[in-house]
Every structure is written in structure tokens, then in C-alpha cells.
Design goal:
This is Flagellar protein FliT. Keywords: Coiled coil. This protein is 84% helix and 0% strand. The chain is mainly α. The chain has one domain. α1 runs antiparallel to α3.
């Protein structure tokens, strides 16, 4: 599971770097709202020369790919975590049942 966390961390770092580079190159500020960010992005893109737009389109495609990889890594990690929690729940239930069974006084038959 440590390998999955490392992959997620790497994907997150790559996506964060790509988004940071795009934000910096377009001077998008610190907008965290997706709608506001997309409006700023569209306005900045409209004002760029065609060559710059093509270069930026490539950078945005890379960032989108990195984000997709991050989503996939997070989904995989979430699936592993869910499986671990399910197994833990089963073990806890079995331990409880075993503990309760140990305190039950058996019936004596004459």
C-alpha cells in the first residue's frame, strides 16, 4: 500500500506543478472557485497570440493528463482503503463474536 501512496503523491505533485505553471504563465491569481478560474483563463487565452495559445494548449493538455492520473491514483487508493476497512470490520466483528462466545455460560444437560 505504501507504493500506492507514493504513486498518488507523485501524481499529485506533477498535477500541482503543471497547474502552478499555467497559473503563473497566465497570471490567474489565487482563484480557487472553478467558475471564476475558468472565466479568468478564457479571458487570458482570448488575448494571447495564436502561437502562444497553441503552446499553452499543449501545457494545459499535459496538466489535464496529470490531473486524470491523479484522479485515477486517488480512486485506486480509495478502493484499497475501502478493502482494508472492510477486512478490518470483518476481523473486528469476528473478534467481538469470539469474545462474546467466550463469556457465554454453556448449558448443562443432565
Amino acid at each position: 500500500m505504501h507504493t500506492k501512496i507514493t504513486k498518488t503523491s507523485q501524481a499529485e505533485a506533477a498535477a500541482s506543478r503543471a497547474i502552478g505553471q499555467i497559473r503563473q504563465s497566465l497570471d490567474l491569481g489565487d482563484a480557487t472557485d472553478a467558475a471564476a478560474l475558468s472565466e479568468r483563463l478564457a479571458a487570458r487565452l482570448a488575448g494571447l497570440p495564436a502561437d502562444d495559445r497553441r503552446l499553452l494548449r499543449r501545457d494545459m493538455a499535459v496538466a489535464a493528463h496529470d490531473l486524470e492520473a491523479l484522479v485515477e491514483a486517488l480512486e485506486n487508493e480509495l478502493g484499497l482503503l475501502a478493502a482494508d476497512l472492510k477486512a478490518l470490520n470483518h476481523r473486528t466483528g469476528a473478534a467481538r463474536a469470539y469474545g462474546q462466545a467466550a463469556t457465554v455460560i454453556p448449558l448443562r444437560r443432565a
